[in-house]
Amino acid sequence: KMTQQMRDLQLAQARKPPGPSSPNAAKRLYRNLSGKFRVNYTSFDEGSLVGRGEKEKLRKSYLFQSNAALFEAVELQDLDRVQEMLKHYSPEELDLNTPNSEGLLPLDIAIMTNNAPIARALLQAGAKESPHFVSLESRSLHLSTLVREAEQRVNELMAQVVNEAPSADCSEKEKQLKAWEWRFRLYKRMKAGFEHARVPDAPSSVHLSVASSSSLQVTFWEPLSVNSAVVTKYKVEWSCSPTFSPLLGEAVMDKLKELHFTIQGLVSGTVYHVRVSAYNMKGWGPPQASMPPFAIPSNWREYDGRAPRRRGQAEALDHLLGQVKTVHQHCICHEPCKNQPQSRKHSVSKSLKHLFHPGSKFLKTLKRGLYLTAIFYKDDNILVTHEDQIPVVEIDDTYSCLLMQDFLWLTKVSCMWDEILWLRQCVTVSQSSCSCILQTRFKMLLAISQMQGLLGIQDLGQVFFEPIKDKQGNILIVTLKEVKTNQTFESVRWVPVCKLQSSRKSVSSPEEPTALDMLLISIQDKLAYHQRSSHALSPGLYLGYLKLCSAVDQIRVLVPEQLPNILCHVKIRSNPNVSREEWEWLQKMASSEEPVPTEPEADRSQNPLFQELQVAIKELMTLVNIPLQEAKDFRLYSQEVLDFGDQVSFLLLLPPSDDVCTAPGQNNPYTPRSGFLTLPLQIFELGEER
């Protein structure tokens, strides 16, 4: 029956052009395939003389060639070439899971020749075994048929070569004979590989952890034995009984890029047992029970029934902002617009004249004052004016108020770039009699509107964490934004950063550079900071270190340069969830005022979180350059786990109370290693929100 299926498959695929018939032909084919495929496949366009039907035929021809080349690379056990093809072509382009005329898939050949490296590469790319092998008997019968037919073909060709006189036809027969001899040896090797294989051993280790109040995460490792065939599937089973009777559920994994599985839809507070078994072409191996032997779905919030801190906050703030806008629509700042049409006409006329006033253009040089600059970048290019200047507008040429308060206010405004016009209307209530601070902030809003109008862009990006000050009395506030798509603008153009830096002629001395020169000198650092501040942590539970230092007008927080939007940290584990049992243990440790765990203790060696914290604390102390013995006076923040979405959570490590925040003039004996910086607390909070 199996042989008849294969013959039917051969008839169904008889229209396909034949693949290479010898190893040398295969090598020639896939050696030149990449360039050939790349040139011809991407050269088709709508204006080509080749019709659509002809283009589709050519495309299918190249896809078939890539499929044939992959088969030949696997048969020749050329790992480098297999990896190269999997890297450059998608599984669909390679027809990765389409059987050849013998009913075999590339993965079948790899596992039956026991070529583990190629088999693993194919599995990670999504390769599967042939669905025709429904049993051990069907696979054995099919291999025997392939060997017998190949042997018969070799004998027929050998007889023809021996009996025929030398000729061109005879030379072709000799080539076919060599090809079939090679294929005969391949099939015999595959048959021997199948016959000598045995079922796989159990997975070497299975780790069970609590992923949430309704799920468990299972992580496992492949069997240690290298004598059996390559594992192609795993089965995860779970039950409330340690005997797994009855079985509550199972899942078969045939995508082996990552060996972990999350069991969803479980009941909180219920005990579950889990085991995992491996599969190869000889069948399923014995199961491996998990460690720990069972787990209970839960979350730390169940300890005291606490609701998520941020639940409903975004909606509440949106509602509050809507109420404020509604109130301001009827306030005095809008009355002139309703009751005095002549004044409105005059205001519009004045604003139109303002657009053509020299003050509404980008500035080339700075005088003593406060300025705003916007840096837009894409790859290694930034936006500049037609005079090759970074866009700069003036905020105030008589600036004398306290800068930090105004600067931090502007960083909050950066979360509402689309609301600048409305904010200006709100601030213009009584400008003539308002305070210096309110006047400065109104001028900031005017400058933002001017920058938005000149650039034609509403979103000016993120405010850099500190303004640039020079000795001439200039203060430059910098915003940064990465442009993801190719955009063109009327008043600005793209220029390579290195070209701008090399072409700009400084108008200041090296000893006293202007704020613009200082910006150009440090622009690469600012771009790097902006890119790093948007990076996200990989999923997991982290241990963060909270260290503050205060000044006269601000509090600053210690952060790593590589991730300035996150506290100094190390990763505890990949599972972000803290279970109820783990949180109870942390609460007991905090209530007994025990020191943080830095040394192993025999009675706690079975507590996985205790062991993970030990390793994390040692790593964190080394990172921030604090002797490990000092960590005995540190404490874990026990009020809550800090959740950043569903995939990242933090436990906080705090210094002694007197050392959490270093005051001005206070001696700090432990200076962090290089690679750290301090951000104003408000800037850090905004970066965290982004």
UniProtKB/TrEMBL annotation:
List, alphabetically, the GO terms of the cellular component aspect: spindle
In terms of InterPro entries, this protein maps to: ANKFN1, Ankyrin_rpt-contain_sf, FN3_dom, FN3_sf, Ig-like_fold
Q: Which Gene3D superfamilies does the protein's record reference?
A: Ankyrin repeat-containing domain, Immunoglobulins
Renumbered residue ranges of the record's region Disordered: 1-25
UniProt-listed PROSITE patterns: FN3 (PS50853)
* Domain Fibronectin type-III: residue ranges: 202-299
Q: Which domain of life is it from?
A: Eukaryota
**What Pfam families does its record include?**
fn3
Where does the record place a coiled coil?
A: none
GO terms of biological process kind: establishment of mitotic spindle orientation; regulation of establishment of bipolar cell polarity
Q: What is this protein called?
A: ANKF1 protein
Upper taxonomic lineage? Eukaryota, Metazoa, Chordata, Craniata, Vertebrata
